Structure formats: structure tokens, C-alpha cells
Amino acid sequence: MHPPALIFFHLPLPMTLSVPAPSPVHNCRVCGGPVRALFQGRLLSHTVGYEECPACGYVQTEQPHWLDEAYSQAINVSDTGILRRNARNARLVIRILALVGTLRGKVIDCAGGYGLLVRMLRDSGINARWADPYCDNLVARGFEAQAGERADLLTAFEAMEHFVHPAQELAGMLARADHVLVSTDLIADPAPQPGQWWYYAPEHGQHIGFFRPRTLVWLAQHLQCHVHSDGKSFHLFTRQPLPRWRWKLARHTAKLGPLLARLRLRSLVWSDRRLMAGEETAG
Known about the structure:
By secondary structure, the protein is an alpha/beta fold.
């Protein structure tokens, strides 16, 4: 029997719209159940069908045959918020580490991109490592995670909506850490029409799946873990449940991260420089 999933919600570039098109029977890429057609829209130069799973609430594109084109550049040109987002995420990661009692633990950023988050975390004193199969590590070189390396916390910011098989990807992350922090914007119910929600991201074609609260609950139950969510964008999967007040504290105390870094951590900037310069060896 699966343990109960804990979920704490505090909820409450246009695409061309068309009527749902008849299509072969498809299955949900999260739970495997049958899906129903929603509408069609544009992704890049393609007319793409969108489908919804009545069982788990997942909304997905048709089988994404355009991904080679979409990932000709891993970081899309419209991602103008990349620096601001990584600075915010670095503060959140420090608070989450404090929340789970591993402030001096290891973090692996599984969707590391150019390495911005890893470098920011190391600047603050966090032992962070980079991993990303689709992007070059530009600013955290020398601090790559090894295949299968375990950590106290794995992060995957703005990655879940890219996954072709989300359950398998999340299972792989939970095999490497007892705490997995992800971000992805939850989709409303009913689903917004094309052109009414920016997160469909028609200009780059990389967003192929969208989650609802009950989708996260299904994933947690399926993977025998717990999920804690802000009901909007940030979601923490854990092997053990966390008190609600601690999760709320970690989310709503933005100044806590820098304070913890100043009081309890020591920046790795200088020691990393010496290591990369060959002046000392890795401990």
C-alpha cells in the first residue's frame, strides 16, 4: 500500500485556435490512462494537438516529433528571466536545505543549464553540482555530478514541462535523493485556450506537458513519496512527510536564505578558484 501523499495547496505568443481534431487513441504520458482531445495550436511551425487525461488531470501535446528542432538551442531566446529566476531559486534552495536539516548537504541541479544556479549556490557556500544532458556547462565547469551520484537534494527547475515521460524522470531523481525540488507552472482547470496562457510557449516548442494538483498527487502515490506544493509553481517531493508549518516557512521567508548563508555557510568562491587553478586538490 502506498503511503498517503501530502499536498499543501494555497489555491484558489499566441497559438492558433481550432476545434479538437479526431485522432488515434493516445495514452497519458503520466498515468497511462486514455486521454481526450482538447484543441489544436501552433508550436514552432507545427499544428499540434493537445490532450487531457481525465484520470490524473495531465495535459499533454500529441507525441512530440519536433523536439530536435525545439532543442537546436537548449536555452531558448525568449528566456529573458533566466538570471532573475536563478537568483530566486538559489535563495529557495538554501531555505529548503535548512527545512530538511541538510544545510551543508550536497545539491545536484539536474536541469543545470549554463550552470548559473550551481555557481550561485557555491558562491553562497552550498556544495552544489551540475547535470544537464542537453546543455553546456559554462559557468560551473569542474563541478559536474557523476552519473548516479547521490545528493541530499536534487533540483529540476523549469524541467517537468519538458519531460516526455515525467513519472520515469521523477523516479530517477528520487533514486538519487530523498528530496526533489521542482518548479513548473500548474495548469488551470479547465485548460486555457491557446493564446490565453504564455506557458504553452509556442515560440520554442519545448513545453509538452502540464500538471495539475491531482497530477502531482498521482505521481507521489505512484512513487510512494509525499508532495508539498505552493499550488502554483514550486513542488517538493520527499520520502518522508514534512510539517506543514516548516514548508510554509521555507516558502514565505525570502530573506532567510541570505541570512543563513551569512551566518552558517562559508562561500566557496575562493576555494573553488584555487581548485580550478590546480593550487589544491578536491577534498
